Structures are given as structure tokens and as C-alpha cells.
Amino acid sequence: MPTTEGAESSVPGPRSGGRAEARRAAQGKGGGSAGAGGAGGGRAAARKSAKPKKNVKKIVAWSTAGVLVVIAGVGGAIYLKLNANIKSFDADAIARNRPPEAKADADGNRPVNVLLIGSDSRGKNNSDLGGGEDGGARSDTTILLHVYADHKHAVGISIPRNAKVELPSCKLPNGKWTKGGNTDLFNAAFSMGGSDDGNPACTQNTVEKITGIRVDHTLVVDFNGFASMTKAVNGVDICLPKPIYEGDINPNLKKKGDLVLPQGKQTVEGQQALDYVRLRHGIGDGSDIGRMKRQQAFLGSLATKIKKEGMNPTTLLPLADAATKSLVVDPGLDSADKLLSFGLSLKNIDMHDLKFVTVPWRFRTQDKDLDLVQPDANKLWETLKADQTIDGQNATGQQPDAPADGTSPAPQQPAAPTTPAAPAADTSNSAIRVAVYNGTMTNGLAGKATELLKGAKFTASTAGQAASTKYKTTTIEYGSGQKANAEKVAALFPGASLESSGARGISVITGQDFAAAMGMSTGAPAGGGSTAATPGVPAPPQPLPTTITNDARSADDDICANTSYGSGG
Is the pLDDT confidence value at 199 over 50? Predict the structure, then answer.
């Protein structure tokens, strides 16, 4: 396990000759020394010793106490260093008038909202890594990560740094509070007060104001912390549609310069990784939109690598050791045991169910900044508040759906005889691809239909909410030459209607009949009357626009796909 001193040496210090020379020197270094391959047999031995025993029935999730026992046994000195590294911001700087905490589901599980901030502060040793000598700090990257109550799904929402938003009252380093209410760029919140450490509490307050979502934790990582983290995992896989040169990294050079990042797949760490996630010019239209796409791809690749190595203290401790030297957190994550326990709580998230999207935006006509698009942005926030995934699934664990009449949930009844059951699986069904849409207001209905189709060996995926939520009967739409396959699909949904469509492939749009067959609330009032909300019962979120769902990225997506925006590659 690497020591604190080893991790510090992995980050290049200031060099004479400027950023270009430092970057070339960093590229020539190769693997770096701050990976997980420290003393005691290296990463392979660590993984071998961390393998679970064959008797899986005896395996239980570690509690915080269990994590501390492991840490004390394998790296007590590292644990103490982690605690010494961690800095937290002032709890008194968090706004008093905040959104309410999320409610627990029937099993006592709550969703968790984490604000991830990448700081572009040039303080300390950051200026050589980031270039420039600008004072203060800005939020280079801001992602609101929503971990659903089932802790099997999560979605990261990128918030553009140059979006115009209303800033709330914020506490300054001198202890005074700003008046608030003025409109400014989103990343101006982090700059409030002009400190090299930034103002994470102000950014948290701003996110809570514009989303109506309570932020449970905030983490800020600067250039040094980011570079160290990528070295601690021995690099992260990326992909570029075209080569990147020094002149793309620093347009002030006024020349092409040397090659920094080649075209295609590669593994990067340290300075190269930082260049990738901060890259704007030389690819796409040079805007922050493309950069956010690459940041999402990078985080997905990083999460996939950590998951593959194993979510355990052996993997997380070197990463935490690298990160905490340049990490600022909220008071709720101000110790090593809190950080590691939180990290371990994410181990059951499948990489396909870790999504990334960007809050709906539009270019402003009066300047080069952005506006958040309404009501689309609010639909996204309401979807998260309802703990519903962007593809329409209910991820609140075992929480029952609220009845439409506001009464207590009725006891679960045995399934009716008409409940659909998968016929004997036909291996040829795997060649039939089916997209499933929810045509009702019942949370999770499309997911249930997808499970049913997969049980019959169809290649099915949940595509989200249908254009209408008023489908009474499940509808199977099919394109040219797909009628026979559509009939096989329809056999799973008794009473479903078959309709030809100009679209390719096969789509299932679930109706109220399928909801009833599954014993789920249809979300529609009896007798087809008004859909007015019942007092005390939250209305289901409106369907998300395709501008959000079609642009969503999963952590396991092809790393070469969707990494730029606009013309220019």
C-alpha cells in the first residue's frame, strides 16, 4: 500500500520551461509510482488476499465498525494520515432555508445526493498542472450525483459552469453574508469571496436553490488531487476522435506544438488525464458542452475500473490517500471512516445503471453563455426527487406506490389468473430486440415489462416514458418485416394490440391493463375522471423530454462514443 510520501511524489512539481515541458516530461514517465502496487506483494497479491470465501452465505456488508477494523489491521498509519489530510468547510456557511431531506423507503433506505466539484484553483502546486497564474478558484466541473434509495442505480447530472442562474445569499471568508438574488454564471458561486480554496458551501447553496434538492454531501478535488487519483488507479482508459496538440491545450501558444494526446484509445494519468478532462479546443465546437461529455466518459471509465478492481478498503485506501491531500468535503464526510463507508455503500451499483446526463440548456443569443431550459430542467429535478430513474423505473427499493385515492396501500393480493407469465424460453428470441416504454403514470411499469421479456430470452431494454401516459391497452408496435416477431412478443401480454409502424424494430408500450395484471397502481383515477393531485400524495413526475433520455450515457458505454459536441470532430 503506498505511503503518503510516495503519493506526493507522483504529482509533478513546478518545472522550469513552462507547462509544455512539464507535460512532455510527465508523458515520458510512463506508469507512475503512486498506483496500488505498493509493498506487500503489489496489486495482484492485494486482490488475491481480498477475494471472498466460497461460502457466500456468510458474506455480509461491512458496517462502519467493520471497515475500521480492516483499516486498523492493514494500514493504521494510512488511516491516521487520511484523517490528517481531510479538510472540511464551515458548516455555518450552509444555508438555513434548505430543501427537506429525502424520505426513507419501506426498508429505511434513503437516496443520497452528492455534489462533486472539480476546482481550477491555481493555488499551491496547481498552477503548473493547470497553467496560468489566475488567483482565486472556479468550479471547472460540477456534477450532482443522485444515488437512488436502492443503492443499485445512480445518475450524475452535469451543470454547465457558464449557465446563468440566480445566486443565493452566501457566506464570505470574512464571515459576512452576501445579499443574494443577482443573476450570474453558475461557477461564480464557487468564486464567491476570491479565496484560493473556493467557496463550496456557496455552490452547494446554489445547487439546492436551482434544483429544490437537498445536497447531502459535497466533495471538492483540485488539479493535484485529480492527478494523484488517476495515478493511484494506474491510469484511466479514454478515447479521442482526433489527436490533440499543445496548441489545443493552450491556444495562447499560437502554434500547433507537440502531440499531447494521440487519436484513439489510450490510458492516461496525471497531467495527461487532466489535459483530457479540461480539453475544449481542437475538438468539436470548442464549447463546454463537449468537455462535459468527455468528463462524463472519463468518470464512467474511472468508476468501471474501480468496480472491476473491487470495492473494498484494499482498493479504496490508496485512492483515498491520493485524493484527500487535495480534497475539501462537507462536515458530514470529514473523517476517513465516513469517506470509506460512503465509498463502500456504492459497491452494488451496476455500471450500466450508473448514468450521466447534462441538465437541459440552450445557447443565449445575447452572449456566449447558456440558459437552463424550462420546464425541462425542473422535470429532471422532479424525477430525482421521486427517486425515479431517467428511463422510468422506480428505484425506491421496496417502497409501495401511493394509491391514487390517497388511502393506505391495500394488502398485496395474489396475482390474478391473467397475470402474464413467460412461455417456455425460445433461444431464437435473443435475436429479437425490443424497446419498452411506459404508457401509464405507474412508476416502474416499463421495468417490469422488460424483466418479463428478458425472462423469455428477448433482448429487451427500458427506453423510458412514452409520449402519452394514457394507454389503456398495451400496444406492440412493429416495423417492416417484424410482424411475426411482434406476435411472439405479444404472447407475453394477453389482450395487447398489434400496430404496424414506420419505425424500425419492435416497441412495447405498456398500458393500464398490464399494470392491473401486475397488481400495480395505474396512477389513473377511477372512472377516467380528473387527474388532479390528491392532497398529501405527491404527483408522479412528468415524462422526461427525449433531449435528456436520448443523450444519457451509461458508465459501461463505449468510451469512444459521444465524446464531442458540434462540428470539428
Answer: yes
Place of cell 398495451: 474
CA dihedral 529, 532, 537, 539 (to 10 degrees): 110
CA 130, distance to chain mean position in Å, is: 24
> Tell me, what's the pLDDT at 425?
55
Q: Which pLDDT belongs to residue 78?
A: 65
Using only the alpha carbons of the chain, give its radius of gyration.
Answer: 25
Instruction: Report which of residues 141 and 56 the model is more confident about.
Output: 141
Please state, in angstroms and rounded to a whole number, the distance separating the CA atoms of residues 436 and 507. 6
Alpha-carbon distances of 463 from 6, 511, 518, rounded to whole Å: 47, 15, 19
Give the model's confidence band at 401: pLDDT under 50 very low, under 70 low, under 90 confident, else very high: very low
At residue 18, the pLDDT reads: 43
Is residue 539 pLDDT above 70, yes or no? no
DSSP label at 552? -
Alpha-carbon distance 349 to 154, whole Å?
A: 7
Cell readout for 524 is 389513473
How far apart, in Å, do the first and last CA atoms of the chain sit?
41
Length reported for the chain:
569
SS3 track for 28-66: CCCCCCCCCCCCCCHHHHHHHHHCCCCCHHHCCCCCHHH
Q: How far apart are CA 485 and CA 431, in angstroms?
A: 10
**Residue burial 431-440, b: 16+ Cβ < 10 Å; e: rest:** ebebbbbbbb
Q: Mention every residue, 6+ apart, whose C-beta is less than 8 A from residue 211.
A: 99, 144, 381, 384
State the average pLDDT over residues 397-424: 41
Q: Which of 246-260, 292-306, 517-531 has the lowest mean pLDDT?
A: 517-531
Tell me the C-alpha distance between 118 and 225, whole Å: 9
DSSP β-bridge partners for residue 388:
394
How far apart CA 403 and CA 519 sit, in angstroms, is: 12
